[in-house]
Request: fold
Amino acid sequence: MSPPLLEVSNASKIYAMGGLLSRRRFAAVADVSFTLEEDRHEIFTIIGESGSGKTTLARMILNIVPATEGTIRFRGVDLATIRKRADRLAFMRQVQPIFQNPFEAFNPLKRVDRYLYMTALHFTDARTADEVRAKADRALRQVGLSLAEVKGRFPHELSGGQLQRVAVARSLISSPALIIADEPVSMVDASIRMSIVNLFKALRDTLKVSIIYITHDLATAYYISDRIIIMKKGEVVESGNAREVLAHPTHPYSILLKNSVLSPDPSRRDELLAPQFSSTEKDIAALR
Amino acid sequence: MTAGAPTTVGAAGQGVAEAPQPQPVLRVSDLSAFYQTHYFGIVREVRAVDDISLHVLPNEIYGLAGESSCGKTTLIKTIAGAIQPPLNVVGGSVKFDFRGQSINVYESTPEERNAMRWQHLSYIMQGSMSVLNPVRRVRHSFVDFAFRHIGRSMPDFLDTVVGHLERLHLRADVLDAYPHELSGGMRQRVTIALATVCRPEFIIADEPTTALDVVVQKGVLAMIRGIQREIGSSLLFVTHDLSVHANLADRLGIMYAGHIVEEGPTAELFASPRHPYTVHLIGSLPRVGDAAPKKGLEGVPPNLADPPPGCRFHPRCPLAMGICSRETPVMEWAGPGRRVACFAAEKGITA
Ligand SMILES: Nc1ncnc2c1ncn2[C@@H]1O[C@H](COP(=O)(O)OP(=O)(O)OP(=O)(O)O)[C@@H](O)[C@H]1O
Ligand SMILES: Nc1ncnc2c1ncn2[C@@H]1O[C@H](COP(=O)(O)OP(=O)(O)OP(=O)(O)O)[C@@H](O)[C@H]1O
Ligand code: SF4
Ligand SMILES: [Mg+2]
Ligand SMILES: [Mg+2]
Reply:
């Protein structure tokens, strides 16, 4: 039997924060475990509080930061043992990130098409300039853009949603086995959002790609996820089949999350000023 | 096109008595701003803001919605006076009237413009954490930005800041962190805190809650609405998320391809959208529990460097008629406080 695609075992990340005198150590990610099987391609969704450790977990899986405790294995290889440049490149070809907030992820002084060309050069068989451009254009077309629209532009010359879609396109170029998408649709409208999550579905179903989908959007989480975990303060507080968890959450935080989804109905707007949301002390006490 | 004046001429013409309205704080008239680039001898013009008029009253939250790349950020950059080449204002005006002090943004000196931005305006830019100095602890950003304005002793000032951060579900110890030690959503909340702690008269916010979970987002929106109501300030709020608008905006402007195509009080706009694009937007709102996708709109938004003639929505519009590809509909009065730019809506046809 082949080893799992990804095996996260009791992974924790401890950070220290604060001034010199009042340094506080805390677990940004606390004892998280889950497995993605090689032959069960799925969309594995992570939702949770802002600051609950989702991005930190993603960065550990991408081998950008080491786990403080626990192990993470990709196709049987412990990420902590990947040292050689060739091994690192081989890993990066198979596991591609879409980073949260493209405005921060893209270097403001670098033209965005360069990112696509570099990815194509490093991780595909494209060698000539034409081949590289063709790969870039093909990826951009999958997210409703084209190379003509993006060519030569700096990040600030694109709208937020355009830039976010370039980030999604870049992750497709190397034909990875696993995509780690950290808030990939936060800046796009409902219609583009739907086309991107449908693209994820198609990648899973036809190209056998597994996707870790980090999101705050419960509606698309419900629509595309196979399994889900809900995080709060570094811990997984609830996990399981996505539809079941989202339809019938049992942990108090998951229930609060579901109940806090804003209703698109202006006649219920006064809820926003209801006591539980304006008296934050109580609110915070309840949350922490 | 009629300017976005507060007293709708049409309303008077129809004999509908409206309560006298206060003077607007912001008046945008016939504003056009294009990105003009010369690329290997070819002049390229992206018409991201094309003949837009709107106004914002004191104590009002004006929401701006529209799909990705329709020009929302460009419009509010232009309103905030924060433009740089290749973006140029090619026509129209932006006027602010702060209790007694008025400024015509594009007829004033850069110094006057800066003074206005510091004293009265606060602009939260999309995705940008550039207000946070990456090599200094967050505390310093607050001291640099807000200490002078708040005018209290340092301990009192820090107490105020900590209280304010709590309203945004942030612990006091974020002040001791460097920006990179915070999560994306924490950084976003710190920028909101910086922009609001001085309680400015006018807040411009571009997608300020995209990185927040729904619980925290609700707290943040409640805070924003809370301080806006407490001091009667005005807010121009951009997001593609109509659920946020439904809960926050008093009035809503819908943008499509560089134009505002419909405007009205939020509840009425949701209850009876007139423009086919607004009808589509409101009809396609996803809800938790949808197992099947909502039907998207056919086609793609137009290229703003070469927009279609006539109504820019016509290639995608289910109600398009002959006239729509020949003439450009202008914003017309469509009931008290409402305006719409559509030939079908003019005739009372809705999608
Ligand atoms: N380099 C670092 N040093 C110290 N603390 C850090 C560092 N990176 C992250 N943290 C802390 O770890 C916690 C988790 O952060 P993380 O970015 O993983 O959250 P998140 O779940 O992705 O949140 P969001 O939804 O806001 O993006 C936060 O409290 C953050 O301040
Ligand atoms: N510096 C620039 N030069 C040329 N075109 C630009 C520049 N900046 C933005 N644009 C273009 O102007 C159009 C409008 O962009 P804008 O950022 O205003 O959109 P937006 O409505 O805010 O979209 P989003 O919701 O995706 O942020 C886009 O097509 C964008 O590519
Ligand atoms: S003017 Fe014509 S094309 Fe434009 S929205 Fe109205 S009906 Fe549709
Ligand atoms: Mg994150
Ligand atoms: Mg924008």
Remarks:
- The pocket of adenosine-5'-triphosphate (ligand 1) is lined by residues A 15, 17, 28, 48, 50-56, 100; B 180-186, 211 (CB under 6 Å).
- Chain B touches chain A through 68 residues (CB under 8 Å).
- Chain B has a mean pLDDT of 89.
